[in-house]
Amino acid sequence: MLKSDIVRRISLRDASRALLATCLAVLLAYPADARAAPNQSKAPVRSESFGSNSLLGSYLAGHVARSARDSENAALYYRRALQKDPANSDILDDAFQLELASGEFASAKTLALRLIKRPGEAAIAYDFLGLDAFKRKDYAKADEYFRLAAKGTSPEEPTMKLARAWVAVAQGQSDRAIATLSEPSKAAWATHFETVQRAFVADVAKKKAAATEAYKAVYEKKPTNMRIAEGYARHLAVWGDKQQALAVLKESGAEDTPLGSALMADLKAGKTPKLMVSTVDEGLAETFLGIGQVLASNNGVDAAQIYLRLALYLNPASDIAKLELAEIYGNLEQYHKAVSVLDAIREASPFRLNAQVRKALYLNALQKTDEATALLTALSEKHPKEESVLQTLASIDSAAKRYDAAIPYYTRVIELVGEPEKRHWTLFYQRGIAYERTKQWAKAEADFKRALDLDPEQGAVLNYLGYSWLDQNINIPEAFDLIKKAVRLKPNDGYIIDSLGWGYYIQKDYVQAVKHLDKAVELRPEDPTLNDHLGDVYWRLGRKLEAKFQWTQALSLNPEPDDVVKIKKKLEAGLPDEAGAHAELQTQPEAVPAVAPEPQPQATANP
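== Tetratricopeptide repeat protein ==
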């Protein structure tokens, strides 16, 4: 597989985590919630000192930072460790990779030149030095480095085959490059990737027939791949077939992506676009970009960062590489890094709007909600018909419980949609939640029903509407039917199972209620409302000690301020008798999250 072949090139060692954990507990004040480290083992670190600035201290701090995927801080600590033990090959290798992952290319080059003088594998160092030579147009040296890199690489891994093909093109030997990329690959998965690269090579070499054949082959296999469709359309337009280019964009759906939409507009205006790859630098960068995308999609995050950085080293203008890198940082919750990368996307880029919307989401995650809202508001004024901007504004307001502010944005998106399709159920659902939270039940109910008209199999909507009916003591049989259907659709959703249990509780069927409420807490033990509900049913069943335990547990889980008051009253006095107005002491469940999924960058798929 691609992931295992390439990740082996990044690291071949297996870490001794127990020793590290013991040392770190004593020595370091670095965040303890680091993710699991990549598999690595280190040569013994020669140091008698355990100070924070010692070799061991720097090494361990770097290891923890790397485990947390914090490449910048990890690079800093490994740099310090390397200064104290410059002969340590393992530290040198790690320091090089981290400088590369952080985009510190000058430092990475210095370390790479040191690394290749040491015995052992140095495939990534040769990769980088090959790219550096290629960038300087020293193609003979680049080919030498790529040849040496291939020695430390699985025969099934195509990176060096592709890289050397681009060297051949740069040296005026495009026929040899095309022939090389036409040979059957040793790995079935690589054949498609190499065919895409063959199309790029032929385009750059102005070999129309060869490019057309390659593009046609990959497009017929993957007609909905946006990058392939866009590349094929550009090829067709440059060679004079603009009508066929328009047809490809339309039938593939690429016309709805940022790049495809911009290309469609240019073609309709009679403009001749650029090829997707028009220089050898762009072509070789595309090789590393494509592999980086595949690695990122297969959880090869560490290797993906390096390959994306290599792509940007050769082609700093690659907005797709920047989007991919920002998405990796976002998934790692390193939002400040993601924002920095997104800010580097050009104002004139078709991806600029998409990048700014994503930036707003990351700013919101950094608790900079006012800044995020200001950015989105400015974007909405500049792009009043852009659904993603308005929906993101609505989502941020909903998450902050500013439901009155969210409703107009959802309404504007719904108006822009016109005749809704199945996929638009979420708009009505989210607006319905906002209406329900602002005590506009008639409008909320209408939106929930409209969402179910569009997609009757959405468990979240079934649950919310069913629970709301139960809570109001109306449409009881229908409410149970909706919630039971939701449970069938999502049998492991703790919130939905809680709704079913709470429905039985409201109907005073405590035996049935406890079965479901127990399971709900088992599935979502961190939720205060679910624990509170379980306490209530325990009390009604006479299990008062267990009830107080659950209420105490609910209090420890940071419930809403109003719920804190109610739970404390129950801990003091228990629940009133059945005839009492016990509803006043009960909390209402958060049936489902109120925030829509983040808008995703479009047209970044790997060819």
